[in-house]
Amino acid sequence: KNQVEQSPQSLIILEGKNCTLQCNYTVSPFSNLRWYKQDTGRGPVSLTIMTFSENTKSNGRYTATLDADTKQSSLHITASQLSDSASYICVVIIQTGANNLFFGTGTRLTVIP
Amino acid sequence: DVKVTQSSRYLVKRTGEKVFLECVQDMDHENMFWYRQDPGLGLRLIYFSYDVKMKEKGDIPEGYSVSREKKERFSLILESASTNQTSMYLCASSPWDRDYEQYFGPGTRLTVT
Asked: Residue B101: its pLDDT value, please?
């Protein structure tokens, strides 16, 4: 079982609409959580990073939330644009170990005109 | 801005060939990483390196080796390519004390026929 679960796997929305992507994790001890955006055929680019004490972090039209008690995070995209079409990957970092990054499998978002 | 470059965007090789994937970063980062990314599986760590001439196995090192002769360069080697190594390969780098703060290259789409 993947220790970082993302939902939905894929999503299609109309341009201008809002959407929310989910990330649930089981790994511990938690250090921080990052959301990456990956355009087709490109490497991931960081959108937000959140530590244990942060509940919300915004980056333009992207807003990430974190509930460390329930081990859930969400990425909300406001007023979607065609350029938002990409995969969004949730990464949970734990405090210990050399290999301490746990990747979700991503949500594929398609924004249509 | 951190820049991570990979030698090829697309590569087609035959089964049994030796394949070299090169990665170069320009931010003097100590840590470098090689991942492969497959649909439905997310990013999986192959090898990483915390210093020149140093390497550590990740989650799926079988069939791969690496070389780090210079700080800025990290090479992934497929000694005898097989069709199940067809994948997207992503290189990343990070500062020594923040291995969670990874910057990714654009990726190499490798096809083994």
From this structure: 85
